[in-house]
Design a protein that fits this description.
The chain is an alpha+beta fold. The chain has two domains: 125 residues, Translation Initiation Factor IF3; 117 residues, Alpha-Beta Plaits. 22% of the residues lie in helices and 34% in strands. It is built from three helices and eight strands. The protein has a four-stranded antiparallel β-sheet with strand order 1-2-8-7. α1 runs antiparallel to α2.
Length: 256
C-alpha cells in the first residue's frame, strides 16, 4: 500500500460572516486543503470476453448452431470446478449473408436491396457476446485458452478488478484524510496557529460519504489461490495491481 499527496491547492481563510440576517453567525477562520490518497491492491477477479457464433441456411439453423457452440464452451468452463465463474451473456445478432457481388451503393452507403439475384440471401450468421468473470485470477490465462479451444471466437482476457471496489475506495479516502490533516497541521504551525476540529469534507468524485467512525475499521482484502485444473495448456499471468484514488477537500477550523 502506498499513499500520495495530490493537489497542492491550499487556502488559508479568515471568513467573517456578513449576512443580511442578524442571526447569522460568522464563520470561524479555517484552513482548506486538497489532498489525495492512493492505494494499490492485488486484482481479485478477471473478466474474459468472447463471442459464440452459429451459421446456417436459415435464421433458426444459425441460432441452433449458436446455442450448441455456447453450451460446448460452457461445458469446457465447467471442468474448472475449483474456480468461481460468473457467465453473463450480452448482445445477440442474427444477420443475413449475401454474396460479395451485392455491393454497397455510392459513397459506401448501405442501400436497400431486394433479396434477389446477387443479393439473394445465402445464409445466416448468429453471434452473441459473452463475459465470464474468474476468481481466483491465476486461472484466467488458462481459461482464456480453454474458451478458444472449445470454440469461442475473439477471446480476450479483458479486465482485472476488485470484488468490492467501494470498500477499497474507502481505504483510499482514509489515506487522503490522513494526508490532508498532515498538510493542515503544517500550515497551521507555520502560521502560528493551532489546528481545530474538522468542519467539512468534500469528495471530489461525489460518490461516497466518509463517516468518521468507519476510519480504522475498514475490511481487509484477501486473495485466494486455486488448485490445478483440467486445462491442457496452463498459462501463468501476473497482472498489475488495481489502483484506487480518492481526492478530498478538507476544511479545518483555526484556533488562535
Amino acid at each position: 500500500m502506498r499513499s500520495l499527496m495530490l493537489g497542492a491547492g491550499v487556502a488559508l481563510r479568515a471568513c467573517v460572516g456578513g449576512g443580511a440576517l442578524a442571526q447569522d453567525k460568522p464563520e470561524p477562520p479555517r484552513i482548506d486543503v486538497v489532498a489525495g490518497g492512493t492505494i494499490e491492491l492485488p486484482a481479485e477477479i478477471a473478466a474474459i470476453r468472447y463471442v459464440v457464433r452459429g451459421e446456417g441456411q436459415t435464421a433458426d439453423e444459425a441460432t441452433r448452431a449458436l446455442v450448441a457452440r455456447k453450451e460446448q464452451v460452457e461445458r469446457a468452463l465447467g471442468q474448472f470446478s475449483d474456480t468461481k465463474l460468473d457467465i453473463r451473456t450480452g448482445t445477440m445478432r442474427v444477420q443475413e449473408v449475401r454474396s460479395a457481388e451485392c455491393r454497397r451503393g455510392e459513397m459506401g452507403m448501405q442501400q436497400p436491396r431486394l433479396s434477389t439475384g446477387p443479393c439473394a440471401v445465402q445464409g445466416h450468421i448468429a453471434d452473441m457476446n459473452v463475459t465470464v468473470t474468474v476468481s481466483p485470477i491465476d486461472r484466467a490465462g488458462t481459461l482464456t485458452g480453454a474458451v478458444a479451444q472449445a470454440g469461442g471466437s475473439d477471446v480476450s482476457m479483458a479486465q482485472f478488478a476488485l470484488r468490492d471496489p467501494a470498500a477499497a475506495r474507502r481505504k483510499a479516502m482514509a489515506v487522503a484524510l490522513a494526508n490532508g490533516k498532515a498538510q493542515a497541521e503544517a500550515i497551521a504551525a507555520a502560521s502560528g496557529a493551532k489546528l481545530g476540529p474538522l468542519l467539512r469534507v468534500t469528495d471530489f468524485d461525489a460518490r461516497d460519504g466518509l463517516i468518521a467512525q468507519d476510519i480504522g475499521s475498514l475490511p481487509r482484502v484477501v486473495t485466494v489461490s486455486g488448485a490445478n485444473s483440467l486445462a491442457s495448456v496452463p498459462v501463468a499471468i501476473n497482472p498489475d495491481k488495481v489502483t484506487i484514488l480518492a481526492r478530498l477537500t478538507l476544511s479545518y477550523e483555526i484556533v488562535r
